[in-house]
Amino acid sequence: MLALSDEVCKLFLSPCSILFCDSLTHVQERAKVATSFKTKGNAAYQARDFTSAADLYTRAIQVSPREPVFYSNRAACELSVLFL
Question: Which pTM was predicted?
Answer without folding.
Answer: 0.75
